[in-house]
Specification:
Length: 259
């Protein structure tokens, strides 16, 4: 049995001219990427979770980049061979079908970009984009023919990769204790606060960060259509017009088909 959208929701979606979507770890879980928190997540064991958070912090990156990269390699290894799933592809189709579309993601797995989403705000960055901390040179691991050897080298040697200039290379992601990139915060404000989309859909996020919760609450306050896709109850479930307790892939595929 496939997932069926409530008929009234389908009608309201068809009338929408702009759609904003917010995604979290739940959307990539269907690709086999472990979620960070929650059962089976990377931070499920609190003690190990604390150590991982410490390893992925700005001070560790500065003082002990090898340790930071060992944690990165572990997460990248868990995602090894994973591909964008039906949910990522459905969002690309939704973008094609509406006049204005924006996607805000907390995920750093690069799947939305790989699937082909164009108007993307990856607020926490992208693990596959690299940045030299000394000379500022940028690289893109996802464009390399095979990223496995790079990850394997880090796992085997336990060493952070180095730039030709001798500087330490870091992933272009927001580490714990770092500020969000200003330009992306500006885009978030413009797309979700100044021009509130007709529909705001939150997918697979446990909604802990204020900048992830606010766009949904503002849309609800302004009388826009709000939808949550999550098999679990979250702190925004009580505020949205529709809470679809479904898998991201089936619910988003149904929404794309309804437009
Ligand atoms: Zn360099």
């Amino acid at each position: 049995m496939g997932f069926v959208l409530p008929a009234e929701l389908a009608t309201r979606l068809r009338a929408a001219r702009s759609i904003g979507v917010i995604t979290g770890a739940g959307i990539s879980a269907e690709s086999g990427i472990p979620t960070y928190r929650g059962k089976g997540g990377i931070y499920d064991d609190p003690e190990q979770g604390d150590r991982t958070i410490e390893a992925l912090s700005a001070p560790t990156l500065r003082t002990d980049p090898d340790r930071a990269w060992q944690a990165i390699a572990k997460i990248a290894g868990a995602a090894s061979g994973a591909q964008p799933n039906a949910a990522h592809h459905a969002l690309v189709e939704i973008e094609r079908k509406v006049e204005r579309f924006v996607l805000l993601t907390q995920n750093v797995d690069g799947f939305h970009a790989a699937a082909g989403t164009r108007n993307l705000i990856d607020i926490h960055g992208d693990t596959f984009k690299l940045l030299c901390m000394k000379c500022g040179r940028r690289g893109d691991l996802s464009r390399e023919p095979d990223i496995e050897p790079c990850i394997q080298t880090i796992v085997a040697t336990g060493k952070a990769p180095r730039c030709e200039c001798g500087g330490t290379i870091r992933p272009d992601v927001v580490f714990f204790g770092e500020m969000l990139p200003e330009a992306k915060v500006q885009r978030l404000h413009d797309e979700f606060y100044h021009r509130v989309p007709d529909v705001v859909i939150s997918v697979g996020t446990s909604n802990m960060f204020p900048y992830i919760v606010q766009p949904v609450l503002i849309a609800a306050q302004q009388g826009r259509l709000t939808v949550e896709i999550n098999p679990e109850e979250t702190e925004i479930s009580g505020y949205v017009a529709y809470h679809l307790k479904a898998k991201a892939g089936e619910a988003l595929t149904a929404i794309a088909a309804a437009l």
